[in-house]
Amino acid sequence: MNVALEQAARGVRGANPLVGAVIVDEHSGDVAVGHHRGRGTAHAEVDALRCARDRGLRLDAATMYVTLEPCNHYGVTPPCTDAILDAGIPRVVIAGEDPHDVAAGGAHTLRAAGVVVDIVPLDAAVSLNERWLTAQRERRPFIRAKIAQSLDGFSAALDGTSQWITGPQAREYAHKQRHLVDAIVVGTGTVLADQPTLTARYDPGGAQPLRVHMGHTTTPPDAPIRGADGRFVHLPTHDPNLAAHQLYERGARDILIEGGPRLIGAFLEAGLVDLLEVYTAPMLLGGGTTSTALSSVASLGDALRFLPDPIAQPMRLGVDLLTHYIPRHDSDGQTNSVDAVNTQAVPGKDNTHV
Length: 354
Description:
Number of strands: 16
Cofactor: Zn(2+)
CATH topology of the largest domain: Dihydrofolate Reductase, subunit A
Pfam families: dCMP_cyt_deam_1 (PF00383), RibD_C (PF01872)
Largest sheet: 9 strands, mixed
InterPro entries: APOBEC/CMP_deaminase_Zn-bd, CMP_dCMP_dom, Cytidine_deaminase-like, DHFR-like_dom_sf, Eubact_RibD, RibDG_C, Riboflavin_Biosynth_HTPR
Helix content: 10-25%
Protein name: Riboflavin biosynthesis protein RibD
Family: In the C-terminal section; belongs to the HTP reductase family.
């Protein structure tokens, strides 16, 4: 199972969980491995089965070790339970049950078909997908926030200029990443000041995320964010929890908060950010607009704390650096959050676009 966990860690965080699988031929001792590479790609079990067939393993005498209960429904890909049953694997060992109300039930289906299923809960399997599991339990999307800043933490200079903090390679990569999410959320300040289109420009024929303006101010009729494809929604609220659940009801399972600082701060203070993506440019501004606005932090003891993401490694993009962070738990197991009274985003001049 440790090898399966290592395989899972090769995936990418997002709407789908990190899952790894290992198949062991009990006769020869040969091993096949697989992992899930992201939404729309083969699940770990199917990936491992392909590897096993390529290597000539006897599947009718094999045991599959998988870090999460095999899915049991038709989504973007067919059920993994069907693939396991078709392969004739007689035993499956699972490190964690799937809490998803649609995908769950794989263990029951396999057992009903005569497969020996052992569920051996592992803390490592839970911690690997901790934020994804939280989103599933809370019935909200997986939420990532993007920050573009100077070395001293500013997203715009004193005169308000912000285009561009980062270089062309970082901006191109950020645009390509938009294809991974279902929705991109910005606040009123960003809508008015930056006039963003929020499109995934480097693959115009690909899936485009839902463009979301969050705030009480009416979106101008000619605002570029509206577009002409109907992929726009205005959420007249400053409540991050309400916005997250409304987007979940619209089918969004992975959303990106792009700005501005107050909106990002509101989601951070609400404890809703599962992954923080920080693009840092090698420049010093000495003042201006900070990359986040946190109304709850008055002293060092109030700081919202994070850990480097062990899955996503730092990435050099031209002269800029992309780093990823996940929330750090306190001694009680709680993540960063403050009372709702401190989590309201206020419309203003927000410039945080890469």
